[in-house]
């Protein structure tokens, strides 16, 4: 199975500099829809779905490989290898910020710049470190996932099951994209919210931008500041936008911040 | 015919009704800015969560009403979906009421945008999902327990299956597959009668089926036939299940392989027969000699010796039985001391009271010291010598040889007797094992070699046998030398 097929890789744009966008937990490459446009003229835009998400090859899901973010970082590097990405830009959201960090440490020549949207190296409070959540919060979150997937599967499973040979039903699916296999979603959620990548931050050898929303329930300001302190060559931009997805809620502001960081092309 | 003209109802009346429906209808409505700031909320929702309108409007964002986990889910999944799809349906959340209790809801939302596609307003419709959530929890619980139960059944080493009232196999677990050697897909759909028959004294299939159809469980012993044609002794429990109309639809069957139990039963029976026989003959001897002496009315040295001899034999049998039961219960204790093995070997020959020509003794000049229990060691050597003499047709060719081999002392007892069939060798030291065909003409409980092996092992040594049928056997005991003589 080819890497490009496995990760449902989309390549578009007219520029030379590769610019790879990596979606976070709970969605797929569609999440970049509102901010890729201005970069298509100037860059070679690479979109993909993590294995288990979107239109990726579900058969490639390997519980052992994806039991840590390292497995996802390996996929990023394999895509880079396949597309000969060098001196590119990596834009990651949420958990993919840490996937980008791991990839950049492993093969520094792939990306010259990292753009980290709502990064958090660890979600759980730990001594002096404020991650924003208690273990109990995370446990509840995993249960909520379960409940939504159960509700989802109870009311929608029959429709989705019949979907393969009846593509006309696709349009009727509720909440149809960003959907994934519940068991995979559960493991990805656990890996996302329980991974501790604090020790990796100082090892990042390339320049990075931290895009921090003014108010973000997942990655509050102190977390962004922590990342900024520990990433050697980093800039912190605090956006006016609120929430965890400025690329959806404030695409223009997000685009402007990224362009300012990258400088004139 | 025309129905009532609706224009006779004023627009105001419709508007009032609609407003009432909005405020007090069966679902909550909440309008918010794209960032979540609450703009309007209906009375139904306020009543559900026990907040006043002024607590919320302009004061809070919708996601602030959610649990921590809910807020994360909202930001991470719900909002992206809403932004990209324009609407989201039936997502489960808990809204926190004023008293901090969670209200389970299902959330639907529509995103309104301006002409340029910029979000302007989110309209939420909220349904009380308390009942549904309770059902879901119940469903999750029962699914989990059903999965656990299924796993227990599937992985059980007992054969667990179900059959129809006609005997057709419907399900077949891993235990059944390994017991019978048939895999599920090959056996399901066939009749259980093809591979299972009631054992002789336990009735026949028609009687069995009649009992089951009457709704009575049956527990019985049966003989199965495995895929490679072997018969398997099983104990089988049949439990009929009635359907709603009272007819027996499915019968669950649990089978255990009782081959091991049968083997133990057979061994026990054999043991009882042999033991009774062995104990009876010295008793008969004692009784006979005592009666003879009494009848003659005079004391006789010969009869007294015979009585003592038989009593000693009885004593040895009982000792063996006691010792075997101690070994079996792991309660064999040793009184260890430093002993000269050469001396012990000579003493064992003397103890048997056989003449010099019956046993040839070959021992080294030196003493070989071992750390051993004098009594048990002599028991071991006596056992081997007795066996050798017993199985030699002519009492002439038994050799006892003691040698030093490195750090070990070896005692071997060789005979030129009937030998041991090769198939018997692996079982020779088992408890109650008696070589087939020898039971008739040779006495013994089948305990001697078992005890000997355990004594050797308890001393940190071992015992081996080499044998050729017709030429004789040789038993070798290897014991670690005590370091003083190993120097």
Short structural description:
The complex is a heterodimer of chains A (265) and B (487). Chain A is an alpha/beta fold and 265 residues long. Chain A has helices at residues 3-6, 37-40, 69-83, 95-106, 135-161, 182-194, 221-230, 246-249, 251-262; strands spanning 10-12, 17-22, 43-48, 88-93, 111-117, 207-215, 234-242.
Features:
heterodimer, A: 265 residues, alpha/beta, seven-stranded mixed β-sheet, globular, B: 487 residues, alpha+beta, six-stranded antiparallel β-sheet, five-stranded antiparallel β-sheet, elongated
Description of the molecule:
Chain A has 9 helices and 7 strands, in the order αββαβαβαβααβαβαα. Chain A is α/β, with parallel strands linked by helices and 265 residues long. A 7-stranded mixed beta sheet of chain A has the order 1-3-2-4-5-6-7, sandwiched between helices. The longest helix of chain A has 27 residues, at 135-161. The two termini of chain A are 36 Å apart. Helix content of chain B is 41%, strand content 26%. Chain B is built from 14 helices and 18 strands. Chain B has helices at 11-24, 43-49, 53-56, 68-85, 130-155, 174-180, 184-187, 205-213, 259-296, 301-328, 341-352, 374-391, 448-458, 483-486, and strands spanning 28-32, 38-41, 87-96, 102-113, 119-128, 159-164, 169-172, 196-198, 218-225, 231-242, 248-257, 336-340, 359-362, 369-373, 398-405, 408-414, 462-468, 472-480. At the A-B interface, α5 of A face α4, β3 and α5 of B.
């Amino acid at each position: 199975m080819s890497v490009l097929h496995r990760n449902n890789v989309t390549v578009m744009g007219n520029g030379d500099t590769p610019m790879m966008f990596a979606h976070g937990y709970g969605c797929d490459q569609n999440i970049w829809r509102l901010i890729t446009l201005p970069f298509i003229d100037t860059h070679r835009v690479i979109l993909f779905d993590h294995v288990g998400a979107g239109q990726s090859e579900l058969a490639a899901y390997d519980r052992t490989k994806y039991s840590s973010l390292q497995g996802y970082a390996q996929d990023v590097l394999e895509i880079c290898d396949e597309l000969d990405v060098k001196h590119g830009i990596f834009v990651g959201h949420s958990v993919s910020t840490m996937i980008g960090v791991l990839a950049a440490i492993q093969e520094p020549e792939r990306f010259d710049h990292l753009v980290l949207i709502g990064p958090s190296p660890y979600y759980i409070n730990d001594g002096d470190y404020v991650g924003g959540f208690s273990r109990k919060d995370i446990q509840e979150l995993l249960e909520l996932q379960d409940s939504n997937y159960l509700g989802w599967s109870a009311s929608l499973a029959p429709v989705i099951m019949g979907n393969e040979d009846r593509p006309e039903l696709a349009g009727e699916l509720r909440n149809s994209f960003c959907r994934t296999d519940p068991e995979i979603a559960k493991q990805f959620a656990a890996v996302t919210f329980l991974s501790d990548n604090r020790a990796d931050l100082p090892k990042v050898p390339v320049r990075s931008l931290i895009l921090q929303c003014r108010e973000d329930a997942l990655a509050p300001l102190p977390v962004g500041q922590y990342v900024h302190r520990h990433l050697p060559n980093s800039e912190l931009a605090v956006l006016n936008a609120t929430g965890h997805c400025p690329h959806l809620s404030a695409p223009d502001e997000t685009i402007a911040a990224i362009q300012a960081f990258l400088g004139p092309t | 015919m025309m129905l009532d003209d609706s224009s006779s109802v004023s627009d105001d009346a419709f508007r009032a009704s609609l407003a009432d429906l909005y405020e007090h209808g069966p679902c909550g409505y909440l309008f918010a800015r794209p960032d979540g700031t609450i703009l309007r909320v209906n009375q139904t929702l306020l009543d559900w969560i026990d907040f006043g309108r002024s607590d919320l409007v302009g004061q809070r964002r919708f996601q602030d009403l959610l649990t921590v986990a809910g807020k994360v889910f909202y930001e991470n999944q719900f909002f992206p979906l809403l932004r990209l799809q324009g609407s989201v349906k039936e997502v489960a959340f808990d809204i926190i009421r004023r008293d901090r209790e969670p209200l389970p809801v299902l959330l639907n939302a529509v995103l309104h945008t301006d002409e340029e596609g910029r979000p302007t307003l989110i309209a939420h419709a909220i349904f009380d999902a308390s009942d549904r959530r309770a059902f879901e929890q119940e469903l999750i619980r029962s699914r989990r327990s059903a999965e656990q139960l299924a796993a227990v059944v599937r992985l059980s080493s007992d054969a667990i299956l179900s059959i129809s009232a006609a005997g057709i196999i419907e399900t077949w677990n891993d235990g059944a597959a390994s017991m019978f050697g048939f895999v599920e897909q090959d056996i399901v759909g066939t009749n259980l009668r093809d591979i299972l028959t009631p054992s002789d004294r336990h009735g026949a299939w028609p009687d069995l089926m009649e009992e089951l159809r009457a709704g009575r469980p049956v527990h019985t012993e049966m003989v199965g036939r495995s895929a490679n044609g072997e018969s398997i002794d099983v104990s089988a429990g049949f439990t009929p299940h009635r359907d709603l109309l009272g007819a027996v639809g499915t019968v669950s069957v649990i089978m255990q392989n009782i081959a091991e139990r049968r083997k133990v039963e057979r061994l026990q029976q054999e043991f009882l027969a042999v033991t009774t026989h062995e104990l009876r003959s010295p008793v008969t001897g004692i009784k006979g000699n005592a009666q003879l002496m009494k009848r003659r009315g005079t004391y006789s040295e010969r009869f007294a010796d015979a009585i003592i001899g038989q009593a000693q034999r009885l004593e040895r049998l009982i000792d063996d039985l006691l010792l075997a039961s101690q070994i079996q219960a792991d309660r064999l204790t040793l009184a260890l001391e430093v002993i000269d093995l050469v001396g012990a070997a000579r003493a064992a020959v003397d103890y048997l009271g056989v003449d010099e020509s019956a046993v040839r003794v070959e021992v080294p000049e030196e003493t070989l010291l071992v750390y051993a229990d004098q009594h048990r060691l002599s028991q071991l050597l006596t056992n081997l010598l007795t066996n050798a003499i017993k199985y030699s047709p002519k009492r002439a060719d038994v050799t006892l040889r003691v040698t030093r081999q490195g750090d070990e002392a070896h005692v071997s007892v060789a005979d030129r007797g009937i030998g041991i069939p090769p198939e018997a060798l692996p079982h020779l030291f088992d408890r109650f094992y008696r070589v087939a065909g020898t039971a008739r003409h040779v006495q013994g409980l089948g305990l001697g070699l078992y005890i000997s092996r355990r004594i050797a092992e308890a001393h940190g040594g071992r015992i081996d046998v080499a044998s050729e049928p017709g030429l004789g056997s040789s038993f070798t005991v290897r014991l670690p030398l005590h370091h003083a003589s190993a120097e």
